[in-house]
Design goal:
Elements: E1 2-5, E2 9-12, H1 18-33, H2 37-54, E3 56-57, E4 68-70, H3 77-83
Parallel strand pairs: 1-4
Antiparallel strand pairs: 1-2, 2-3
Protein name: PspA-associated domain-containing protein
Organism: Microtetraspora malaysiensis
Domain PspA-associated: 1-92
């Protein structure tokens, strides 16, 4: 799966890593629902860090279509809330 972190580029992640990413996504959603800015910030950074850790960065000149688009690390709760779908940021 190809993931784009806005402002950073594309990262390829394995399907096997989706479960751990979904768990972090659930925690992020809970922080958004609680409107807890401090926890939101920690959970957003944890999700993005895990994507970077488990994934492989694609070259900047790669033209692969992104299957997921994640917010930048400095996104606000409102910006991330607007990006959430029925299944969060990470489907599954």
């Amino acid at each position: 799966m190809i993931v784009r972190i806005m402002g950073e580029g594309q990262i390829q992640i394995a399907d096997a890593d989706l479960d751990v990413l979904n768990a972090l996504d659930d925690e992020l959603e809970a922080a958004i629902e609680a409107e807890d800015e401090a926890v939101f910030r920690v959970k957003l950074h944890a999700l993005l860090d895990k994507v970077r850790q488990v994934g492989k960065s694609l070259p900047d000149d790669s033209l692969e279509p992104s299957e997921l688009i994640l917010p930048p690390a400095d996104a606000s709760i409102e910006e991330v809330r607007d990006m959430l779908g029925d299944t969060g940021l990470i489907p599954g």
